[in-house]
């Protein structure tokens, strides 16, 4: 199939039922086929013929029946069209989060909203970490510290506790953060036989899920940009498709900044996932487009918007799915103007980079 690369299926879920294994593949295919249930099931059948995913006891038809019975898909009464349910959309978010964030190396203490500075509404968390210079004495966890001293220094009558034995209860800052995630949906996101939009959708779903579950007071707005830019809802993400668009980065950034202006939170940030250079501007009702190289008119406008974001104290983190030297030079200049960050990521590492930097920015930005 043009635009997608599939590797040989490996059965890594031997302890799971056939239904669970097929459900995992089916949900991956739903993202690839923009939520089209019929196309996803058709391709799943092709994979079954090629890799024998099912056997004589349980076939694809049984799987489809179970999807209906368990509420993963529904069938329209009038035309018989199969559609996704809210249950499947939630499942895809959770799967994306586990696929991306579950593989990251977690720190010893992985609590919520950790900050290098003490806020006005800090509360003790359930996380314990090693004592550091500057920690308050009332943070010391006596149970953990005494146990460390017993292990390290022996169980004598006169127990001695050294600084290295001390552990403290970490504190959480209740300061909110507002994030806008920008996703490039220009035509280049499926060019050259590589599907780049599906990993971008997984990242958006994972970010939405981690904010909903770990940082419920935070906000996440998601926008897409091609010739124009517009906001989408969480439920729209699985159905995203690449269009015949150029890349109007300016429109995306202007919309992102407008959304953040409406937020009352102190800490604000923009994450931009793109694989191409800015190639489009809107001038009144007309579009100024140039796909050949870096057009100075478009570049200057893009740099101006980056500087404007800096004045508003909105850092922009750019995740560039490209390695062309001239594009890297542009992104470097863009990042310097904004004082943000830039990553040149392959598709496999994209999710990890985004989520790690999301947490790093939170710790850095909270003052």
From TrEMBL:
Annotated InterPro entries: VWF_A, vWFA_dom_sf
SUPFAM superfamilies from the UniProt entry: vWA-like
Record region (Disordered): 106-128
Domain VWFA: 179-277
Matching CDD domains: vWFA
Protein name: VWA domain-containing protein
């Amino acid at each position: 199939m043009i635009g997608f690369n599939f590797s040989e299926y490996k059965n890594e879920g031997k302890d799971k039922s056939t239904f669970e294994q097929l459900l995992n593949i089916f949900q991956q295919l739903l993202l690839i086929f923009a939520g089209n249930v019929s196309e996803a099931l058709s391709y799943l059948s092709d994979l079954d013929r090629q890799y024998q995913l099912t056997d004589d006891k349980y076939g694809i038809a049984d799987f489809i029946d179970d999807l209906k019975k368990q509420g993963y898909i529904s069938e329209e009464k009038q035309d018989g069209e199969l559609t996704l349910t809210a249950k499947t959309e939630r499942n895809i978010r959770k799967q994306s989060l586990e696929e991306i964030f579950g593989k990251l190396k977690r720190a010893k203490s992985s609590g919520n909203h950790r900050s290098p500075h003490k806020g006005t509404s800090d509360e003790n968390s359930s996380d314990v970490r090693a004592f550091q210079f500057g920690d308050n004495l009332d943070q010391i966890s006596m149970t953990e510290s005494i146990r460390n001293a017993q292990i390290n220094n022996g169980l004598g009558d006169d127990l001695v506790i050294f600084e290295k034995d001390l552990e403290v209860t970490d504190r959480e800052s209740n300061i909110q953060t507002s994030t806008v995630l920008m996703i490039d949906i220009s035509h280049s996101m499926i060019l050259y036989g590589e599907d780049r939009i599906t990993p971008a959708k997984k990242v958006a779903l994972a970010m939405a899920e981690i904010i909903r579950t770990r940082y419920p007071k935070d906000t996440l707005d998601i926008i897409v940009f091609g010739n124009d830019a517009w906001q989408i809802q969480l439920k729209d993400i699985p159905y995203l498709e690449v269009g015949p668009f150029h890349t109007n980065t300016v429109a995306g950034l202007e919309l992102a900044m407008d959304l953040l202006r409406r937020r009352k939170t102190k800490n604000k940030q923009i994450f931009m996932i793109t694989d191409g250079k800015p190639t489009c501007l809107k001038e009144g009702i007309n579009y100024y487009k140039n796909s050949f190289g870096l057009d100075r008119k478009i570049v200057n406008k893009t740099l101006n918007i980056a500087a404007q974001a800096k004045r508003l104290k909105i850092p922009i983190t750019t995740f560039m799915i490209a390695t062309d030297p001239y594009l890297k030079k542009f992104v470097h200049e863009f990042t310097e103007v904004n004082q943000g960050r830039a990553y040149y990521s392959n598709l496999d590492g994209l999710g990890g980079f985004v989520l790690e930097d999301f947490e790093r920015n939170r710790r850095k930005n909270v003052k």
